[in-house]
């Protein structure tokens, strides 16, 4: 809570200063966190859907134009299409089954926590999704009689992507933890 959002109140009975929280400022802050969480989740879902569909289309296009048929590339494209359908289905379910929240501080905060929980799960699943895509891509290069250095380069790339996704996943977990701490503080008050 920002210092400017607190008010100093003088208690005449005890002759001491008491600090109270500005509820309007707190509610605005909760709404801001909720909106930011929803925005990040929406962007993540849409990027995952678009990126997987485009990558699958590119892989299929290259594979069909190439006279050398490589089953691993077709499996990779199919896996990416399945991933995009999975994310789309969960996005639709999340939006359709979203409970109707009151406009209270607690309900807005609970909505933000629910969205953050979904984002953390999605991030974890997509981080694990790097493994099959990486394995299938490397097998596709190996089966296509490409250079060993290209396969090693792709392996290094996927390892870096896996670690970067762990960093991103940690950010989402920290944001969720912040919301839960705020909720705990409100429940204690």
N-to-C SSE string, H for helix and E for strand: EEHHHH
Number of domains: 1
Q: What spatial form do the alpha-carbon principal axes imply?
A: elongated
Strand order of the largest sheet: 1-2
How much beta, percentage-wise?
5-15%
Number of strands: 2
The largest pleated sheet is described as: 2 strands, antiparallel
Our measurement of the CA-to-CA distance between the termini, rounded to an integer number of angstroms, reads: 14 Å
Secondary structure category = mainly alpha
Report mean pLDDT, rounded to a whole number: 85
What would you say this structure looks like, in words?
Helix content is 79%, strand content 6%. It is mostly helical. It has one domain. A two-stranded antiparallel ribbon has the order 1-2. Helix 1 (23-65) runs antiparallel to helix 2, helix 1 (23-65) packs parallel to helix 3 (105-143) and helix 3 runs antiparallel to helix 4.
């Amino acid at each position: 809570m920002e210092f400017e959002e607190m008010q100093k109140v003088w208690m005449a009975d005890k002759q001491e200063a008491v600090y109270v929280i500005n509820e309007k400022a707190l509610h605005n802050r909760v709404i801001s966190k909720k909106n930011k969480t929803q925005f990040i989740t929406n962007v993540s879902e849409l990027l995952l859907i678009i990126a997987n569909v485009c990558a699958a289309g590119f892989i299929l296009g290259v594979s069909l134009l190439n006279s050398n048929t490589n089953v691993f590339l077709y499996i990779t494209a199919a896996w990416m299409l399945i991933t995009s359908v999975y994310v789309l289905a969960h996005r639709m379910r999340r939006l359709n089954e979203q409970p109707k929240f009151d406009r209270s501080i607690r309900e807005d905060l609970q909505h933000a926590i629910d969205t953050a929980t979904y984002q953390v799960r999605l991030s974890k699943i997509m981080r694990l999704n790097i493994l099959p895509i990486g394995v299938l891509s490397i097998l596709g290069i190996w089966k296509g009689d490409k250079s060993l250095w290209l396969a090693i380069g792709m392996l290094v790339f996927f390892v870096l992507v896996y670690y970067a996704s762990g960093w991103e996943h940690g950010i989402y977990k920290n944001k969720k933890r912040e919301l839960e701490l705020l909720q705990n503080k409100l429940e204690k008050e």
